[in-house]
Design goal:
The chain is mostly helical. It is built from 18 helices and two strands. It has three domains: about 200 residues, Hypothetical protein af1432 (Orthogonal Bundle); about 120 residues, no CATH class; about 80 residues, no CATH class. Helix content is about 55%, strand content about 0%. It is globular.
Length: about 425
């Protein structure tokens, strides 16, 4: 790979940082390496080790968490960059996708996900319906720009480069731009309305018009998205097999009930059944990672939405048969794992738990109560909640707190507040 300063793919605007001139580190890292490292060494990233990916964090040691998932996505994303560097005629020795940038984007893509997986995201969006909503990608943006490295003087965030911040933004439409014709708020895929300045910074000097902004993605964002699809479409199946949700019998029943599998899908399903029956399923799905990353290629965009940036002059093309294979695995995981009674019972409990924590905090720190609020949380958070300027800001700060909890922290907090038999009063903190 070329030295970052010799790489013509990126220009001065790509390296520009959100909060003005960034103090350069004394080592030889590039701006994109600094972005990546600031994510990896953050508390927000470490917390992903105890957040649900498929099965509740901590239930068994070998199941994937949000952290191991993010690590796998980052490895796939970097490998795709290396594959394209070797094989794409559109790139050259001094004109390359930056693997450090793509790796950093992949590490950061799930920072905003709350405890208890997607049900936690849906629960917080429901609880925040009157205060701007909640969305995992929007929360990731909030973490990177406001929450990740708090400072005593009040400023925070990690001063990301434009290319990095843009790469993380899988969705770019504001919530107010996503309401449906019947006046219903969007369930997901939006940014918070107050994040418009960050979107404007990410897009640079020109904002696309007449296009669906949720389809406006840099090439690094496209790679992250496919790496994410590859990781969970393959690895969720492996975890489902380990947990005995996906068996030869359940696959057989699923195939008979699906009733609409074509010859290609039926053949893939037969191969999965054989791998499960003969016990080599982990080797099989691990080897498919190579197929998924080699199925990528670049194609030029005839009329790029942002012509001043090479990051918008290319589209990631996926071989159709590999794309269909990924869709089949995603469907199996959804219908044999996520739609099962056991998983949905866990989701129900997680949703109710977050709702009770949110309601307790809003009631305790609400303006309708005495100025002397009970200290339910550590002092810095207590002051943050009590000092909020109005109910919407208070709700957002409380939502930040709840979204940042790990699965275990959320459960322990619930027990401290609502379970009279949990620990001694001397153990509460």
């Amino acid at each position: 790979m070329p030295d970052w300063q010799d790489n013509r793919f990126y220009g001065e605007a790509d390296y520009e940082v959100l909060t003005g001139p960034r103090k350069r580190p004394t080592d030889d890292r590039s701006p994109f390496q600094v972005d990546r490292d600031r994510v990896v060494f953050s508390y927000a990233f470490r917390r992903l080790q105890s957040k649900t990916q498929v099965f509740q964090s901590g239930e068994f040691d070998f199941y994937r968490t949000r952290l191991t998932h993010s690590m796998e996505v980052a490895r796939i994303g970097r490998s795709i960059c290396e594959h394209l560097a070797r094989n794409s005629e559109l790139l050259g020795p001094d004109f390359q996708l930056d693997p450090d940038l793509t790796e950093g984007v992949c590490y950061a893509h799930d920072l905003g996900h709350p405890p208890f997986g997607h049900i936690g995201e849906r629960a917080l969006n429901r609880l925040m319906a009157g205060y701007g909503g909640f969305e995992g990608n929007a929360q990731t943006l909030r973490i990177l720009t406001l929450l990740i490295y708090p400072r005593p003087e009040g400023s925070s965030g990690m001063s990301p480069t434009r290319a990095f911040l843009d790469g993380v933004l899988k969705y770019k439409k504001l919530r107010r731009e996503c309401w449906d014709e019947e006046g219903e708020p969007p369930p997901n895929h939006f940014l918070y309305d107050e994040q418009a300045p960050y979107r404007d910074f990410a897009l640079g000097s020109r904002r696309p018009t007449g296009e669906d902004l949720n389809e406006v993605r840099s090439i690094e964002c496209q790679i992250m998205d496919w790496a994410d699809d590859a990781a969970y479409s393959l690895n969720d199946i492996v975890d489902g097999i380990e947990a005995r949700y996906v068996t030869t019998d359940s696959l057989e029943r699923w195939a008979s009930e699906a009733g609409n599998l074509g010859p290609e899908e039926a053949d893939l399903l037969t191969r999965v059944q054989r791998a499960v029956r003969e016990g080599y399923y982990e080797r099989k799905f691990s080897s498919l990672i190579g197929d998924f990353l080699r199925a990528t290629a670049l194609e030029e965009v005839a009329d790029p939405l942002l012509p001043e940036s090479y990051r918008y002059r290319f589209r990631l093309r996926i071989e159709p048969e590999i794309f269909r294979e990924a869709q089949l695995y995603q469907r199996i995981a959804r219908e044999l794992i996520f739609d099962t009674q056991a998983i949905q019972q866990i989701e129900f409990k997680g949703s109710r738990l977050l709702g009770m924590l949110f309601d307790a905090l809003m009631e305790n720190y609400g303006t309708g109560r005495s100025a002397r609020h009970l200290r339910l949380v550590p002092e810095p958070l207590h002051q943050l909640f009590a000092g909020a300027d109005g109910e919407p800001e208070r709700a957002r700060r409380i939502c930040d707190f709840l979204a940042g909890l790990t699965d275990g922290q959320a459960v322990r907090t619930y027990k401290r507040w609502f379970d009279p038999d949990f620990a001694s009063i001397l153990d509460l903190d």
